[in-house]
Amino acid sequence: MRAVLSAIALRHLLARPRQTLVSLMGIVLGTAFFLGISAMMQGSEADFIRRLIDNSPHITIQDQYRNPRLQPMAQLFPGAMIQMHRIKPETETRGIRNYLQALDFLRDIKGVKASPMLSGQGLVSFAGKDEALSLNGMIPNDINSVSTIGSYITEGSIKDLAGNSDGIIIGSELARILSLERGQSITVSAATGQRHTFKIVGIFHTGRAAFDQSQVFLALKRVQSLLNRPNRANQIIVKLENPNTAQTLAARVEAQLGYKSVSWQEASEDIMSTLKLRNIIMYSVVSAVLLVAAFGIYNVISTVVMEKRRDIAILKSMGFHARDIQTIFLLEGVLLGGFGCLLGLPLGAAIMYALGRLQFKFPGSTQLTGMPIDWSWQQFAIAGAFALAAATGAALLPAHKAAGLKPVDILRGAGA
How confident is the model at residue 88 (pLDDT cuts 50, 70, 90)? Predict the structure, then answer.
């Protein structure tokens, strides 16, 4: 029975070749453009997230608590009738206490790489010019395992910093502003009044001018000395084999250590929300292309229903049920959607290939950048599903209308 219904549906479509071809081309082009645009947008999102994940810690453990700690008075008298205000908390040296034990705990977790870091503010003076700096004190041998700064170094290397405890790695923008070169020495001052002379052993270039101008990397011990924080670290940087587990692990680490642990998802929550909104807009726009094509299918099948009223009446008189008639016209939509997918997906793949071959050279960049394309099977599945849904949805109303036709009224009208 299914074969008979399919044969009737196909005959109806072939009876109007021009209109059927136009509707079919609408689905083909709609599917192709849907796939091409979706793959391009998802590819750019994946590339952005990859860059975001690679260039920032997966988890950052900070030397602060997520919620303010209760003061001793509040702990001693939690239900007191009288409250004391403007109590100045006791001054304490900032830093993660027992950070070495915290590192041992983290490194015992499979797939976790962790390293301490001490950040602070400094000032560099050279040739009569002063520039504010963000000092990043790290263990040189750990830098490559928890940071990507090594991949941006254009002169020197991380090994040079590991081999020279008085070495410093600066950004290309700072080197340009102060006319500095690798091998020269600069004096860095901290707010504590400490000063130390460092030798430039490396220069990096990330392409972010503000970062390249203000960030410098030094040995942890030297920053501890400059900031008068011996044996202290105010951050622990964590890298994971699977970045997607960062949020879960951050909650576990915070519960264990007490210190605020921020995952990359939490730190970039506004960006992730923007990407989700962008996806909604993107799918709405590309779906409109298929919606327009669906109106063509609706027009073709509605016309067939009007022209085949007598045939429908005869089929019902022969014993075909209303659901059989409805199935015939639904199959017409499915056939158009199916053939549209078969032709549209390869065309979409060709568009994806063409987009992937495009290369751009952005201002300030020395390398060509290609268009990121997502070639995952999910993109093809989503495009095909949307095309079939649009085609089938366009056939629903005409199919319901055909199923509701009464053969007696049609045949009586034909006979009159």
Answer: low
